[in-house]
UniProtKB/TrEMBL annotation:
Organism for this UniProt entry: Microbacterium luteolum (Aureobacterium luteolum)
Annotated keywords: Flavoprotein, FMN, Monooxygenase, Oxidoreductase
Domain Luciferase-like residues, every copy: 37-389
Pfam families associated with the record: Bac_luciferase (PF00296)
InterPro entries, A to Z: Diverse_substr_monoxygenases, Luciferase-like_dom, Luciferase-like_sf, NTA_MOA
The name this protein goes by in its record: LLM class flavin-dependent oxidoreductase
Family: Belongs to the NtaA/SnaA/DszA monooxygenase family.
The organism's place on the tree of life at top rank: Bacteria
Database matches in SUPFAM superfamilies: Bacterial luciferase-like
Amino acid sequence: MTRPQHFGWFLARGFGPQGWGYPALDWDYDWTRPEIYQEAARTLEQAGFDLVIIEDAPSMGSPETIDIRVRHAFGGPKHDPLLLAPYLFQATKHLGVVPTVNPAASLPYTSARQFATLQHLSANRLGLNVVTDTGSARHFSDAAQLGHDEAYDRAEEWLDSIRSLWRSWDDGALVRDRATDVFADGTNMRRVQHRGTHFAFDGPLNALPFADGEPAIVSPGGSGRGLGFAGANSDVQLALAPLHEASVRAYRSKIHDAAVAAGRRPEDIKILFAIQPVITSSAEEADRIVAASAHPDDAALVQIARKQSSDLETDLTSLDLDKPLDLAIFGPHVSRGSIQRLVGDRGEDAPLRAHLTALVRAGRFSDRTGFVGTAEEFADVIEELGEWGNDGVLLWGDFHPVSLHRTLDELVPVLRRRGILRREYADGGLQANLQAF
Ligand SMILES: Cc1cc2nc3c(=O)[nH]c(=O)nc-3n(C[C@H](O)[C@H](O)[C@H](O)COP(=O)(O)O)c2cc1C
């Protein structure tokens, strides 16, 4: 039976020059100004999306690889998405806005106060995509960079700290009684004296408590520790996993088990699978795109090598395409998961050309080999995910009206007709929308 699902948009290159290198996006586009993002946010709201998540990294990466990352604007520059959020709230009424935040980059008290301010300003529409990348540590102190699991420990301490500050006004602390001229009762506020492993501070928080729920917590980590963090703490998990039934069900159960172990209900967390679709106007067009991608020329491979070089902080563009890729070129700073995604199961003798070709090759929705196809075919995939219990889908792309309209114009009416996409919003902000079904 068809079930409604939640839809999000992942602004995958963050608040940066995402049109760079894509001539088709070269119209009325100034990435440093709010207008283009506001227009896109309105489009998503008209489409019935619950939220937009804005990717971020506070750093341009290791000193040795900055040029690789900025030369084609893949890895930077990026402006702070928390400061873009108010402009998107102002342009919309229901859309949740979720900037990415890294506990390495801000102290709990400052963050709790900033997030509380935005939650009030937006009428409960703030979310926070909590990430644990440690590569930017050198910008914030000279302390040693944390390991993978320690970064999750710090993220949990940071989030617990923020929540204890948000809850530092007990019931009855906010009085607002004009007759007695009492605004608040300071004797009903908790002092919150936190002395932890990573943070030490006192409360209470100098911001109003929430009457209608806290900002939504979103998380993207896919390791065992990451899924455990999501189950214990998150309202939304961004899921990157193969979209076949066993994989989808296994991913969901791991998070649900972690939620139950932490005393929560499985339905407290919505799991959104990330997909980057290419929607075509006909099956023939989709077939042509897939066929054209089967044998990419060297120019196409260099283009994908540039992006990979930025993501992997390792220059692949100067390597011989026809020689085996020596994995020793990747330093210890490079994510093992990202290397694995590049090399797949092709073996150590496979030339770089084979790895890059696999990334360029597209497949069809219709036979479940990829993400190219018509709106109806994509809706079939989403409907099937729903039959396996899925909560929703996160469409992955830039935030330019051209890309949004290409993806959504035919898809939204199809999803609505099938009852998969909401027609109206709950009255109460992001958490209320997430919990509406
Ligand atoms: C869909 C998705 C979105 C992500 N967005 C960001 C991001 O905006 N900023 C960031 O620093 N890391 C981002 N990450 C990386 C995660 O925060 C995390 O560092 C990474 O997945 C490693 O954690 P893990 O080992 O638990 O998977 C993202 C990961 C996924 C799957």
